What we know:
Blueprint: H1 4-24, H2 27-30, H3 41-55, H4 71-78, H5 83-104, E1 112-113, E2 120-121, H6 122-144, H7 153-163, H8 166-174, E3 181-186, E4 192-199, E5 201-204, E6 213-217, H9 219-226, H10 232-237, E7 241-245, H11 247-255
Parallel strand pairs: 3-6
Antiparallel strand pairs: 1-2, 3-4, 4-5, 6-7
Helix pairs in contact: 1-5, 1-6, 3-4, 3-5, 3-6, 6-7, 7-9
Amino acid sequence: MSSFDDYFTAHQDLFAHYNDLVGRLSDEQMAVQSLCPDWDVRGVINHAIGAEYWMTGWEPSDTSPPPFERFVEFDARTRGASRSEFAQIVAETTATRLDDLRAMGPEVLDRPSFSPAGVSTYGRFLQVRVFDLWVHARDIAIPLGETLDDSGFPAETALQEVDDSIGYIVGKKIGLPDPMSIAFRIRGAVDRDILVRVDGRAGRVAELADPDVEVFSDVGTFVMLASGRIDPQEQIDANKISWSGDPHWGETAARNLAYTQ
């Protein structure tokens, strides 16, 4: 069970990473195409931190959605800003957001709330935000040739967000038929087995004695494939994702993890 302190520290660490990026990247690096087709590096940072801006001051609620329209205010402030001005805006936004979280306290996790995954709890909202910030950090790092740490709570949380959708991924994106089963073996900086059986519909199971397919990957490759950011063939060729058991469904799974972009 994730705690409020876990989520707070994850935001703190991820915000520090974005603050470091805007402080050290050159204008040329900011203009590099990210893994998101519509944005360069600066555009990704603008999007990721702009989301934190429109959440600033919003009280978690299941009746009043966050003021998404406030992103227009943030975009107006950052558009045309110099690199140093942009860095200052990012630093102010992340500091204010941390102050908001600090003031909420642990009980906020169970509060009913709008979230990007629909009406749920504010804890789920924070999980999605950690996932988003973690993935966007790699949308930037990979094109720049930088390596990030894939261990710890932020990586576990990004993987959990994919794990929470694994029934949909296996049933709808991969299309594994009834009554087959598949085990995803995540190894490396994060170790986790994600076990799925199709019994009428695909669903997570606690035990799977003899899966029809096993897929092996590290957390970074797995989450970025599930996010639709990286080319499956390149990861297969680099042996970053592999499989055993049924060869057709192993390859199909490796090529069709993407469920969000």
